[in-house]
Amino acid sequence: MSIFRALVLISLWMPLNVIAANHMHPDVQLLDRNGQPAVVTGLPMASDVTCNDCHDGQFITQNHDHPQHIATNCLLCHTDNYDADAYFTVRDSNAPSWAMVSGLQQGRFVRKNNDAWLWRSEVIANEGTLDAATLGIKASDSEACGQCHGIVYAGSEPLTIGATDTIGRLTRLEGAIYSGQKLSVSGLNIAGKATQDRAFDVHAERLLECTDCHRAANNPIHGGAHGENLSHLKYDPRQSDLSSYLERPDHNLMIGVAGGDGSCKGCHEPEDNHSWLPETERHFATVSCQACHITELYGPALKLVDDTVRDATGAPVLEWRSKSKANNATLGFEPLLLQRANDGKWAPYNVTLYRFWRDAATNETISEAMVDLAWANSQQSNASVFGAMTAAFTEMGVAQAEIATVITPTAINHGVSRDSFALSECEACHTLNGRMQMSLSLGPMPADYRLPTGQDVASVPKMAVSLDSENQLHVSSADSVDLELRNNTPILLSIGGLVGVFVLFVVWRRFKRSER
Fold it and tell me: Residues 135-156: pLDDT tens digits?
């Protein structure tokens, strides 16, 4: 291998905090799907073909745990300042093949002329060959992941969330924000934030990238992957060849390092610093690390998605956790503790209620277009919204329109706090009003709606749904929890106190008798 090629490979491998923009990567000629210069043919660029000169694009695409449209778009994760919103917008347009290149630095290399996309003159002048710095080629980082997965922030300015900002799954369903910024200096309207000295996530605070845990199986920095014939090894320290890895990086991302199985034990040894915890082994066997170390979430997490009605913009009605209606402050919410299906351990969850229209005769969901039309008709009717929409669906040929509901729990694994903010007091859980007995609100229940009974998958943790006196739905764990010892602590203390007083009285009486 030449010295130049070795330097190129090493520069690609080095962490982002060492090399922000990769200036050692060779020049790149933008190729179309047929392997021809895209600016010559006038066709859109295909990144998996373009990158094939050094990387095995076919292998990467076939060994990728993301959807096909993500797996074939190398630019999305590996170029700086990529505009993911532009990519997804154009992908849903009448020219989806141009979506990939449209996201390159806000269309810097292409322009739109009516319905046609054209390469800009400065790209054509170089026959479609650009240097790595111009393209912004880089190793994937947390902010690249955040374009799709949730709010990730590593800036120095106070963190804010705009009304039109894209909120990915990590934040939308978990309420987690991956940022090392302290709550007290953020730009969010968090109630009492002046006293909040914790970061949004301790791993981000410790400068860990998403790829430190969600990693390529054959990444040599993590020791590589061991084959089936090495199954007796928990961790293989021998590294894969760097050149082989860069040619064929496995994109079926693993979770955990140093042979970890996705649990916290991939990096941590909790047994070594939890000796203070009563009945330590029993706690480790029944309670997940996340249950105590993810105490409160401050991102916008969905509580209710009501697709049966429309808001002022014509979109489904959304309700979010954490928001105070009085001053729009973010209060933060405590996750619900449920038993995980895979190991039965208690772990934190957010729970979201989805409402939607379906045809009970066929069990098929009624289309968005039909719901839009029925909603518009209901606004012109004097009948109740439920009655007017039901009548509109009947006119559209729906045999038996009804409102269906699905309750979806989402396990929370981000938004971890450092040990000083973790739950450590027994009373946090072992009381009648503790975490093990809490519930989460699911929003209001209109009179025409029925109680939700459906769950999206059979393996979700057991949950109980109830309706309070204000017609608000709540969800809690359906399993009973053995809290007898702690729930009876006041009684035991009272009995112990009485026994102690009696013993002191007996001792005092004997002492008095001995004085006579």
Answer: 889 889 999 999 999 999 999 9
CA 304 to chain centre: 17
Mean pLDDT of the region 106-121: 83
Strand partners, 344: none
Tokens of 356: 């939607």
Write the pLDDT tens digit of every residue in 466-490: 888 888 888 888 765 555 444 444 4
Residues 91, 95: Cα–Cα separation, whole Å: 7
Reported as a pLDDT band with limits 50, 70 and 90, residue 32 is very high
Distance of CA 514 to the CA centre of its chain: 73
Q: Is the pLDDT of residue 224 over 80?
A: no
CA atoms within 13 A on the CB side of 124: 11
Q: What pTM does this model have?
A: 0.81
Q: What is the mean pLDDT of residues 18-30?
A: 69
Distance CA 129, CA 138 (A): 17
| CA neighbor of 371 nearest in space, from 357, 360, 382, 383 | 357
Do 153 and 181 meet the contact criterion of CB atoms below 8 Å apart? yes
The span from the CA of 28 to the CA of 50, in Å, is: 8
Neighbours of 21 (CB within 10 A): 16
- Burial string for 252-266 (b: 16+ CB within 10 Å, else e) reads ebbebbeebeebbbb
3-state percent breakdown (helix, strand, coil) of the chain, nearest 5 = 35, 20, 45
pLDDT for position 379: 92
Rounded-to-integer distance, Cα 54 and Cα 64, Å: 18
pLDDT digits (tens, 9 = 90+) for 184-197: 999 998 888 888 88
Any idea what DSSP says for residue 287?
B
Residue 176 and residue 150 in contact, taking contact as beta carbons nearer than 8 Å: yes
- Please, what is the angle between helix 368-378 and helix 385-395, to 10°? 120
Contact predicate 472/443, CB 8 Å: yes
Query: Cα separation of 320 and 85, whole Å?
Result: 23
Q: Quote the CA–CA distance of 219 and 144 in Å, as a whole number.
A: 19
| 8-state DSSP, 271 | G
